[in-house]
Amino acid sequence: MVCESNNKSYLKSQNLKIIGRSTLRGEVKISGAKNSALVLLAASLLTDEKIILDNVPLLTDVEKMSNILKNLGVKLQTKDHQLIIDSTNISIKELPYELVNGLRASFFCIGALLARFGEASIPLPGGCNIGKRPINEHINGLNALGAEIIIEKEIVKAKIKEEKSRLYGANIRLNCPSVGATETLIMAASLAQGRTVIENAAREPEIQDLCQMLNKMGAKIYDAGKEKIIIDGVKKLHGCSHKVIPDRIEAGTFLIAAAATSSSITVSPVIPNHLEAVLNKLEESGSKIIKKGNSISINGKSIKAVDIKTAPFPGFPTDLQAPFMALMTIAKGSSKISETIFENRMNHVELLNQMGGSIIVKNNIAQIIGVKKLRGMTLVGSDLRSSAALIIAALISNRVSRVYGLEHLDRGYENFELKLSHLGVNITREKNIKIKDVSNDRKTDSIKKNLSDINKAA
Ligand code: EPZ
Description:
Elements: H1 8-12, E1 14-19, E2 25-29, H2 34-43, E3 50-54, H3 60-71, E4 75-79, E5 82-86, H4 97-100, H5 109-117, E6 119-123, H6 136-144, E7 147-152, E8 155-160, E9 171-173, H7 179-189, E10 195-199, H8 205-216, E11 220-222, E12 228-232, E13 240-243, H9 248-260, E14 264-268, H10 276-284, E15 288-292, E16 295-299, E17 308-309, H11 321-328, E18 334-338, H12 349-354, E19 359-362, E20 365-369, E21 378-380, H13 384-396, E22 400-404, H14 406-412, H15 416-422, E23 427-431, H16 445-457
Parallel strand pairs: 2-14, 3-13, 9-10, 17-18, 21-22
Antiparallel strand pairs: 1-22, 1-23, 3-5, 4-5, 6-8, 7-8, 10-12, 11-12, 14-16, 15-16, 18-20, 19-20
Helix pairs in contact: 2-3, 2-8, 5-7, 6-7, 7-8, 9-11, 9-13, 11-13, 13-14
Bound molecules: ligand EPZ.
């Protein structure tokens, strides 16, 4: 169910009603990767020829990104999970704030627009619920490639230095292996004059997918997925067809949900080596994992507590930290979860504790003592992955739970409740109902505020 992204308040009054304790069984189809589709859409601005993208996930973030491209004059045709993108006649104008607000990936257009048209104006992406989300790595790298950048009234204005007609290749060393900055700079360098070397580059599969598509378009990019990427700029890029890779984070979310409910399921399609770190931790905590071609099966058993520390790929992905914490709340023993990528990515802890979890957070490290069970209740997700964590907790718990905050969930999980119900979960999406205030739930002010906001929106 993909809701109109510009109709966000509509989503606020929806919730998922989940009858816990659930057992999952069967096979779930994994959609195309959100964090690949978004950057591939940005990359389509690099050519005036047609790009055909297949396996595009139906998500509100993809819808938002499509609206941004349309605002630039791009023609987009959608046929089921296929997007046909025609950037022949696009006019550069400032992207309206309300279009880009809340979609970090919109900022990744700056590299493509600058490389193709010599200028770009994009509103500052700003922070979000999980952290400040700075852009210094993007700016420093674009400066090195020959761009002049000023930030005026929250708008980032970039243009190629006067005396140059094109960006020019440079040696760039990132201070931190930023996924977005690596993608921005690869796109900018693909049309620059000469060679660019990016050191300490991010190695995520979504970057490899971007480089695969760019090379199909005629780019000359070597060693994508390594920490040193080489790009020999070319004059022009042509159109191509490309299939988005499977979403490793969605696949990991379902595998963790199966482990948490001692279930056996298969996820497919998936690329197993995109999830090595997660599969290792699931096995260490007692689940049996079978990898076969482009599918992974899990046989969830009793869960042992294990420690995780998030890290850039190929380390444990920060996007699966919250779902994995839901699993650890009922593991046998004590575990430690260290979040090293974002400064504020533990928004799910408060509610997991309300459900009966035993978690203490200090300096971005969560100490968890496993408990026997969780209590279903009214829950409000505050960001995309926290929402997924709360749904997993609701699957584990007894009684009924209602999970609000679907405007976050629908950003990154296509038809999440449909896929869970096909796996045997008793889950339904309810609309516009007042929240049944479960009086015996101890609610903190922030939860009460969230709930009252939702009631207002209902
Ligand atoms: C991408 O965000 C993903 N989003 C995120 O997924 C993911 O969590 C993140 O990479 C890390 O894997 C998309 O691809 C659209 P970063 P991005 O730049 O590129 C610091 C989800 O849930 N940093 O790799 O914004 C930054 O503060 C989303 O699907 C700088 O210091 O992440 C952070 O601490 C959430 N300066 C760290 O790097 C910069 O200029 C990693 O951020 C840029 C980043």
